[in-house]
Amino acid sequence: xxxxxxxxxxxxxxxxxxxNRPDNFEKLIETNWQSTVTDADTVIHLGxxxxxxxxxxxxxGWHGKKILVRGNHDRLAQDFYLNCxxxxxxxxxxxxxxxxxxxxxxxxKFNHGCDINFHxxxxxxxxxxxxxxxxxxxxxxxxxxxxxxxxxxxxxxxKFVLKNKPPTLSEIxxxxxxxxxxxxxxxxxxxxxxEIFGQSRARLEECYxxxxxxxxxxxxxKFRLWRNAVRYIEGKISKPEFMNIIKKFL
Length: 250
Description:
single chain, Purple Acid Phosphatase, chain A, domain 2, five-stranded mixed β-sheet, four-stranded mixed β-sheet, 9 helices
């Protein structure tokens, strides 16, 4: 069986406040993982294991073959993760799961070419991009338990792919993601509010128009222009700064 889990943030005290996690969330994750996963299974971790080496080492000893899709907090050397028990450390991963082509990434991968993109990072279920299919995973909605990519779950996802229609928030909640609790305001927007969410969506639409048009459409994959687009979409650089950066690649 293949399992997936995002954003464990083991030993991260502030995550309790940011994401309303219980004080014993690390124990919950470990107990649920060890009681669910066997050594014959594979767990794809979608990044942000922990800031602390001792927690990475501890998780590395848990059941199953472990693949790390690096998150923005996974900054240690690749060999460290491999020595801790991970069999593979990658920036993103594409798998064919029962004829469903899934892209696993930490952040949403805008303009991806797979059937669907599984990602974490946001700690909510909001979807920025309606031009592609995404499944945002939130460990807070998964009962702090790895999600099994079993036959029923994959069959449900195939229905969205066949319709080529992004799942609604209600449909995402009903997919069987070990769901505990109810949607919050963060699951509709990005956690910072409707205005910022709307700005990000507008910037994403701009990036589609720019990077899918000449001359950038020929260079967007070769030079990973979408990687720079993400910085603009997230508001980390201005539009003039973004344009100046991508012009250098032409």
